[in-house]
Specification:
Organism: Corynebacterium flavescens
CATH topology of the largest domain: Spore Coat Polysaccharide Biosynthesis Protein SpsA, Chain A
Pfam family, one: NTP_transferase
Shape: elongated
Strand order of the largest sheet: 5-4-1-6-9-8-10
Domain Nucleotidyl transferase: 14-241
Domain Mannose-1-phosphate guanyltransferase C-terminal: 256-344
Radius of gyration: 22 Å
CATH architecture of the largest domain: Alpha-Beta Complex
Helix content: 10-25%
Oligomer: single chain
Number of strands: 28
Family: Belongs to the transferase hexapeptide repeat family.
Largest sheet: 7 strands, mixed
Mean pLDDT: 91
Distance between the termini: 66 Å
């Protein structure tokens, strides 16, 4: 089976949908597409590309839109990653189905694996491809078992794995299988999606395929899965990568309590805990406690500061003895000494908070 699965990868195109604006992560996404945000010290998308390459897939088509040039500037033709990457730019938003149809002319193979570019997943790519080919399916969907499916669209299947219907969010779901946002298509099916208009693959394409008698099957598992769209999920996802809870080939042999870029400086007595990531050229002062936090490049955190479950963007300066809990600090912002920020606060790029300028305590 291993040899067969490897062959499946070699004859599969990967399509990654990375056109979204990432508004829930603002201000981090004002100038950077969400899939390019540093996650465990690599652009988030690079973890997915590494898993695609590990599965034997080499041809990748990125469907881009917002800040499209950033992807090509960073990844180029993909050769340094062992990949062959091409780019297609959506001039106007086309939805999931429209985005998939829009890359049709770039496809080289009869099997096409589609990924949502803002999902962190531990799914077995080779296993999904194996299911697709064994069942000779027109479309294979990655389905995830979750404890509480009420917040998701549910996808019931029969004993053979055939998808029966697609259900919107409901208070009494008939199954705990949800659509995890990864699909394998026969190329000919993609050609049937209407071109040059908005198409929802979930609401339009898949129901139409079922009603027309096409074979849509589910590959069901309990793998790691997280939508990285909100700050708390982004922090948790990066932390899980650092700790090895979520797997990335980029971090083989380097997982643990923290990952620190070799160019960063961490003073003695500083504590880096719970999957913290420290980016290039960042400096962490003595006596700091950085817990479950993503620190981008070129950040300075002065001695005695405490930062929990937060995202600190590039070029930020955090003053001595500041306390930051569950916050997003935008690029180049300055947080003065002894400031206290908490409860989902977002500090936008370039904002300067003076020493003790924001406090929850009564003493300054």
């Amino acid at each position: 089976m291993t040899e067969e699965v490897a062959n499946y990868g070699a004859s599969t195109d990967a399509v990654i949908l990375v056109g979204g604006r990432g508004t829930r992560l603002r201000p981090l996404t004002i100038g950077t597409p969400k899939p390019m945000l540093p996650t465990a010290n690599y652009p988030f998308l690079q973890h997915l590309l590494a898993r695609i390459q590990t599965a034997g897939i080499t041809h990748v088509v990125m469907s881009t839109s917002f800040k499209a040039e950033v992807f090509e500037e960073y990844f180029g033709d993909g050769s340094e990653l062992g990949l062959d990457i091409e780019y297609v730019v959506e001039e106007t938003a086309l939805g999931t189905g429209g985005g998939i149809r829009n890359v049709y002319d770039k496809l080289r193979h009869d099997t096409v694996m589609v990924f949502n570019g803002d999902v962190l997943s531990g799914m077995d790519l080779s296993g999904i491809l194996d299911t697709h080919h064994r069942k000779d399916a027109d479309v294979t969907m990655h389905l995830l078992n979750v404890a509480d499916p009420r917040a998701f669209g549910c996808v019931p299947t029969d004993e053979e794995g055939r998808v029966l219907e697609f259900l919107e969010k409901t208070e009494d779901p008939p199954t705990n299988q949800i659509n995890a946002g990864c699909y394998v298509f026969k190329r000919e099916v993609i050609q049937t999606i209407p071109a040059d208009r908005v198409v929802s693959v979930e609401r339009e394409t898949f129901p139409a395929l079922l009603s027309d008698g096409h074979l849509v099957v589910g590959h069901v598992d309990n793998s790691y899965w997280r939508d990285m769209g909100r700050p708390d999920d982004f922090v948790r996802g990066s932390s899980d990568l650092v700790r090895g809870i979520a797997y990335s080939p980029l971090l083989d042999g380097r997982t643990g309590e923290a990952i620190v870029d070799e160019s960063a400086g961490v003073a003695g007595g500083a504590l880096l805990l719970s999957g913290t990531a420290i980016g290039r050229g960042s400096v962490i002062g003595a006596g700091c406690r950085i817990d479950g936090t993503v620190v981008f490049d070129g950040v300075t955190i002065e001695p005695g500061a405490v930062v929990n479950n937060s995202i600190i963007a590039s070029g930020v300066h955090i003053g001595a003895n500041a306390h930051i809990d569950n916050c997003v600090i935008g690029e180049g912002a300055q947080v003065g000494a002894r400031c206290e920020l908490q409860g989902g606060m977002r500090v936008f790029p370039g904002v300067v908070l003076p020493d003790a300028g924001v406090r929850f305590s009564s003493d300054a």
